[in-house]
Amino acid sequence: MEKYALRTRLLVTLIGSAAAVLLVNTVLVFGMTYRSARSDARELLSATAEQYARETGNTLGEALAVARIMALAARETATHPDQCQREHLDGLYVRVLEEHPLYFGTWLQTLPGRFDGRDEQYTGKYEGNEGGDYQPYALRSKDGISLTYSNFAECENEDYFTIPMQTGKEAVVEPYREPEADNILMTSVCVPAMDAEGKPFLVAGVDIVLESLNEMVGQIKPLGTGGAMLVTAGGTIVGHLQGDLAGKTLEEAGVPASLSQALSGEGGGIFDMYNPECGGWCTVAISPVLMGRAPQQWYLVVWAPNRDIYRHAYRLGLVMGALGLLTLLILSAVIMATVRRQARFLDGLSRTLEEKSGEIREAAAHSADASGDLAQGVSEEAASLEETSAALREIEAMTETNNERVNELRDLSASLSTAMRNGSEAMTRLNGLMEDIRKSAGETARIIRAIDEIAFQTNLLALNAAVEAARAGEAGKGFAVVAEEVRALAQRSAEAARNTSSLLEASRQAAEAGGAAAEETGAILQDAVKDAERVAVVSAEVAEASEQQTKGISQVSSAISQLEQVTQTSAATAEEIAATAASLKQCAAELDQWMIRLDHYVRGARHAAETDVP
Q: How far is residue 96 from each of residues 62, 103, 211, measured CA to CA in Å?
């Protein structure tokens, strides 16, 4: 079925379902109608059988009641002969026939010599009975009602006498044909009477003509085509739809064996039976006929052909079938129109969803790629931030070290400023001393000039020593050599005087130069003091700036740490986004597969295969 389009499947499913529902509905309605007809027919047949069985039972029961009265009257007459006479009983039997047209005769059968002890008084008075025993028989004839007397020997072996005498119970004998009454069908109801010892000694009875029952049964026609039958337990038909069957046995009448078996069982109920006379199967209802106190059982059988019972059900079934077919056609038209409209809508929806699925698939792929790149970039950024954070931590450590060095430099600058001020003061004192030396050298020069002439030669040597000292510069060795020479030439005063004069002159000049240099050094030291003080101030400012820089770097490092955490969180989020994008991509792929299945479901696998072929 999946290879066909959704429209075809829906049409087949819906129309098939509608057909199945209508079929089930028709079957259910037909079944309900069939069961209702069956139930109604069975109730009707059962009620009819019970009704006519009750009427038959009432008829026979009334006869038994009359016979019971006759038996009681006979017993009273027999036990109280001084109060009752046989003639009273004769009148009673005649009056019973007069009041009951259905009765053919009334009679009394007694044991000889057991009635009222008056047999001798009536000897020879009864025609046909010379012994005088009381055996009256009132019967109906064309001329009217007549009373006769029979002989005991003629009836002592008949069922209507022997059965009640042997059982002591009331009895209804099997129907029989009476040759003396134009061979009519009749039955006898018998009631025994008991003597003082509780033993039956007489039987009173009524002979009933069964033609009326046969006519009554013949008029029973359930549903207009059925029939009825009144039958005894012994299988003798009392009444029948076909009146000529009365008096025959079931076997002689050709009644189906199933009915005979049903009657031989419990003798009641409703069942189906095949009867060719009904044209096939028929429904049969059997109701027992209760006849007073008699133990014998008769049955009223009522039947009706099933074709007539279920005729309305069959007609209703045909009508329901026609209506169902018409409804199916209408529903099919409506379903086809609705399914076509829905199929067009679903086809358009399938195509649109297929296009959107492709767009979602492409977007998911791009999103997955972008998320992967983002995750990779964020990971790299996190690594860079980690490296930057490490570098900042190193810079922070170096800044702290520099801050310590700047603090040391500030302390050293303060110490240097103090030392420079002390050096400036020392240079000021040195300048005074140099001034004093210059003054002393002038005075010494004047003295030397006094002895210059004396120590000309010494002056020359001193001049040579000064020249050597000047060549030597700061090295004092040459000056020492000259001094040694001066001491060596000390003996020569002139030379010493001249040398001393030269030396004094040089000393004076050097003192003047030293004074100038001391002044210049003092000025330089003053400037150096100012610069040292400025360096101290700048060092303090640098130290303070270094502290601020250290704090800023610490804050930047903290911010970088936070940024690193945020970046790591962003990296984790980016990875989650990448995973989500991958999941979205997978979902898009699955959605694409479902869209293919939807397309196959809507347009059919065969159509989809045809459209996929390039």
A: 12, 8, 19
